[in-house]
Write a structure and sequence with these properties.
Blueprint: H1 22-49, H2 63-90, H3 105-130, H4 138-154, H5 165-182, H6 188-208, H7 217-223, H8 241-244, H9 249-262, H10 265-268, E1 271-275, H11 278-287, E2 297-298, E3 315-319, H12 323-329, E4 330-339, E5 350-358, H13 362-369
Parallel strand pairs: 1-2, 1-3
Antiparallel strand pairs: 3-5, 4-5
Helix pairs in contact: 1-2, 2-3, 3-4, 3-5, 3-6, 9-11
Length: about 375
Amino acid sequence: MHRPKHKYLISPPNLTGMPPGVPYIIGNEAAERFSYYGMKSVLTVFMAHYILNQSGVLAPMNENESYMYTHLFVFGVYFLPILGAILAVWLGLTAAGGIFATFKMFFIVGLIAMAVFVVVWLVGLFYLLFHRDAKRFRFLAYTYLIFLALMMYLKGKDYYLAPIYPMLYAAGARFWEKLIRACPRLRWARIAVPSIIIVVGIVAAPLVLPILPPDKVPGYMAALGLKMTRTENGMVSPLPQHFADQFGWPEMVAKVADVYNSLPPDQRAETAILAGDYGGAGAIDFFGRRYGLPKSISAHQNYYFWGPRDYTGESVILLEWSLKDAQYWCRSVDVGPRNEPFYGMGWEHYNILVCHDFRIPLSQAWPKLKTWN
């Protein structure tokens, strides 16, 4: 059977040398660079000295206005490809047929909101990097870029860099203020941009603030077309982590207090409360005072540096420990009540254990218990 000859390639060609498309790619890139840098180098001069109005009469802009339009041009060159990538992903553009998938109206609103927020902080970044009026604050842009690269290299969580953005918002607001003053035709942006940000902020507020009842948050996220983010290992809560981490602590401390107070008085005086992570340790230290609990100890993160205090390991209440690990370290283990916060994080579901006699003194075991993650 004769196989039809395809007009276009349907598989990579069998080549031994340079692909024939490379010179076209290089030539296209060179043309783009020439166009961009050529336009950038003459745009300010053209607008300040040679631009004509609709009647063909010379109508040059003032220096500030021409600089502003040049910066808008630079911003557009860098931002529009990003926006195109967002459009391609958010609207579900498929490589096979180039057909847009069905999408909800929220995605359009979300896309507009995302573009608006980026227009503020990303413009602020470029303003700090390139505008002559922001030269004294340029170190702020370098700080952001350094920390961004550092977080990407270290694979940090997405929210680690969040506290640095307010300074970029401030710089972006300053740029827009200068631009609107220099270009009265953009006065509408003074109302439009803040209005969109406020509306989107109102819609997003229940996602980050305790406005809705906990059982309503998953449904609200689903109505907005959002999926649950998993920012931690063991993330099994029906709520996002920043909400889930706020549940279960008082109840857990109350259960620990019941176990602690059930011990004989002479044993109680020697009993340490050893938490498996800094969250449980902090909860004991904060809520435990109302029950007369001693300060906790933990080998997790910076709690490790406070050490085991003066505890020997003769009697230890274990939090966030598995029974297997407890039996490895302790000569005997009693299984206590279960901590089971419905909205809590996955690692907050465990049995409170009472360890009798660490196999080695707690001070010697401490370096081996150290956990840094």
